[in-house]
Design brief:
This protein has eleven helices and seven strands. The protein has 300 residues and is of the alpha/beta class. A seven-stranded mixed β-sheet has the order 3-4-2-5-1-6-7, sandwiched between helices. Helix 1 crosses helix 11 and helix 5 runs parallel beside helix 6.
Length: 300
């Protein structure tokens, strides 16, 4: 087996898989908006859309029908990763687009050599081009997600603040440990992010308390609220940091970006210092020519 030595990956690049096999928990929203705020804080970020629905692609303003290459070509045809990287409206933020063709990739890769390591090999070609690579995973535990986990250094798990939040999470973490044991010894849990939190309901508070009690020190302090603005932003092809930078959802992802950047494998998560998002003076729905960068929280 033509295995890939994890030590060959750049020590400066953090590859974070945003994963949960349950659908509708905020994986794509988190990948897009976390990446946007990291980029606005001065980090060079690549979002890899590994979901055939291509929602992260369109949410970043990239038309999957008008790109020269995509993640399907990379995984199935071994196309160079560099050929698929597309710029976005956010400075320092780039995207590898997806396509509906990716839905058949798992079948096409059944007989492929080292099929579970295709994405890792492609990412190694980037060397030090990016500080962070965020992988938006599909809602399954199939071969695409295995590729993401085999190529990642860390895992971020979004959990919706609803009744069935913890259902299946044990199986997900079991699979993560299997990948860690057999394919990727570098893999670790970066943290769990609570999404779609509704402060008006006791249920959301109870779910948040239960998750924090089950995973002490591994749940991010920043909680993503249920927000109309977060739901509207993708229709404009923009992350929330551009669409409505003063909204509660934008504030939450700014805080989460600060936590993820400083997260350390050897310690529990630390509450971020209070921050005030910048006043961004562009019209909602219109991307700026040059988005500002900021040095708050030591992220720049």
């Amino acid at each position: 087996m033509d295995d890939v030595n994890p030590a060959t990956r750049s020590a400066t690049t953090r590859v974070i898989a945003v994963v949960n096999h349950k659908g509708g928990v905020g994986k794509t929203t988190t990948a897009v908006n976390l990446g946007a705020w990291m980029a606005l804080e001065g980090h060079r970020v690549l979002v890899v859309d590994l979901d055939p629905q291509a929602n992260a692609t369109t949410g970043l303003g990239v038309d999957p029908r008008r790109v020269s290459s995509n993640i399907y070509q990379i995984l199935v045809n071994s196309a160079p990763m560099e050929d698929a990287i597309e710029p976005t409206a956010v400075r320092n933020l780039f995207c590898v687009p997806s396509t509906i063709d990716l839905a058949g990739a798992e079948i096409e890769l059944v007989t492929a050599f080292s099929r579970e390591l295709r994405l890792r090999k492609a990412l190694e070609s980037l060397e030090d081009d990016f500080e962070f690579v965020l992988i938006d995973c599909p809602p399954s535990l199939g071969l695409l997600t295995v590729n993401a986990l085999a190529g990642a250094t860390e895992v971020v798990v979004p959990i919706q603040c609803e009744y069935y939040a913890l259902e299946g999470l044990g199986q997900l973490l079991k699979n993560v440990n299997l990948i860690k044991t057999n394919l990727n010894p570098e893999l670790r849990l970066c943290g769990i992010v609570l999404t779609m939190f509704d402060g008006r309901t006791r249920l959301s508070e109870q779910v948040a308390e239960e998750v924090r009690s089950h995973f002490p020190g591994k749940v991010f302090y920043s909680v993503i609220p249920r927000s109309v603005r977060l739901s509207e932003a993708p229709s404009f092809g923009q992350p929330i940091a551009l669409y409505d930078p003063r909204s509660k959802g934008s504030d939450a992802y700014l805080g989460l970006a600060g936590e993820v950047v400083v997260a350390d494998a050897s310690s529990t998560l630390v509450a971020p210092a209070p921050v005030t998002p910048p006043v961004m003076r562009w019209r909602r729905g219109a991307a700026p020519e040059n988005a500002p960068t900021n040095d708050r929280m030591g992220l720049g």
